[in-house]
Amino acid sequence: MSAMPLEPLPPRFQEVLDQARSLGLDFFELRFEVVPEEIMAELAAYGLPTRAQHWSYGQVYNRNRLFGRMGLSRIYEIVLNNDPAHAFLLETNRPVENLLVVAHVAAHADFFKNNALFQETNRHMVAEAAAHAQRIDRYREEVGEERVEHVMDIAMALEQHIDFPRGVHRRRYEEERGRRPAASRPPRDPDEERLAELFPEEEAPPERETAPPPLPPHPERDLLWFLANYAPLTDWERDILEIQREESYYFYPQFATKILNEGWATYWHARILGEAGWLTPEETLEYARLHAAVVQPGSRLQINPYYLGYRILRDVEEQSGPERLWQLRREEDDVSLIQNFLTPELADEMELFTYGPRSRFAPSGREPELEVKSRDIDQVREFLCRPRYNYGVPLVAVSEVRHGQLYLEQLDRHVSGLDLEYAKKTLEYIGELWRGPVRLVTADSEGRELELVWEGQEEPRRRGRSG
């Protein structure tokens, strides 16, 4: 990758970082590199400097490059959750743009270091992902490009189906059961001990054989973990699933705090540069123009996360004082931020509403006509939070393994069904790894419960369910 490290750091960059620290930001050491636009587009596509190759990253790269050439988007910076934190600046950034970006990056690095969701993330993922890429390249040489690419397709189709609160490092169910301490007798005093010697208790009869515990012992939402541990995979197949799962865990906190993290970084670049007494009048005007672009509200149907997070944090600061912001940075994610701190007054001021199709049945070949559904604060909060749950994907869990068949269930099918074409393909993928029949209980777009069945045929079958 063509990048130019910024060593030593320009004096004005250092001045911004010194001011950030003096205001209380606490961040990992920052290592800056300047990169051209094509490298920035590559970083945005892969998410890390070096990562195992996959065609889907190429798709994102091409889109980023196209949008950049058309002037529709420009990526000024990328900062990675790592210790030290790696920050990449676009080589065409103007001097004032870079000052804003450095302040913004320092706040992101502070958030990575201190927010609760990031505490268990791998702080050395830059090096770890490079090692992952080397292992997968070796598998390509050993078993062939096509087989490796296909297993990566499957792993990436399932990568969002993890169970983040359970953590990336888990033991198999049998090992967990084996680690539970046996029930022990409470300590007895000397009199009780003497009585026990005189009148010993009858030995308990040997335990009768019991049925094996169910697999899984509870609905298992971490599909990649379950398949990596219980499907009959080869070592290289299992390793690819575990690699994809580990990287998915690394990225999850960034997904779950997008609004808060961007609002936090925007709040701090505004404060640091707004209070800087060393910008010239021309630089102050240019900074104000850049900041206004960062906090533009977005379109009528898609709110800008920088704007939403920034407005909520400013509102909390006005209502409760600046000290409360440190607590939000430490404890909240996007869902709790919106549920607890988006007030009815602020929602009215920002003109927030929910919307949806006017009719359930759109004319063939035409986009459905949309209408405003509600301005009620509870519905607005739910509307904003819904895509922030569970990586934005449906809740699907392994419910049972019976006679070699794998049973899956969509837990939130009462809220919305699945796109059946995607669901059938994903079920086929799971069946390939399970090497046996797979069944999924879900619902269609009309809310009717149904079962998809894959038994090795080319395409899963659909069965209606009653009750």
What does this structure look like?
The protein is an alpha+beta fold and 467 residues long. It has helices at residues 11-22, 37-46, 55-69, 95-114, 125-143, 145-158, 173-179, 190-198, 223-230, 235-256, 258-275, 281-294, 305-320, 323-331, 334-341, 344-349, 377-385, 420-434; strands at 4-5, 30-35, 77-80, 85-90, 354-357, 370-374, 396-402, 405-410, 438-443, 449-454, 461-464. The strands form 3 sheets. It has a 5-stranded mixed beta sheet. A 4-stranded mixed beta sheet has the order 1-2-4-3. A two-stranded antiparallel ribbon has the order 5-6. β8, α18 and β9 (438-443) form a beta-alpha-beta unit. The longest helix has 22 residues, at 235-256. The protein starts with a strand and ends with a strand. The relative contact order is 0.09.
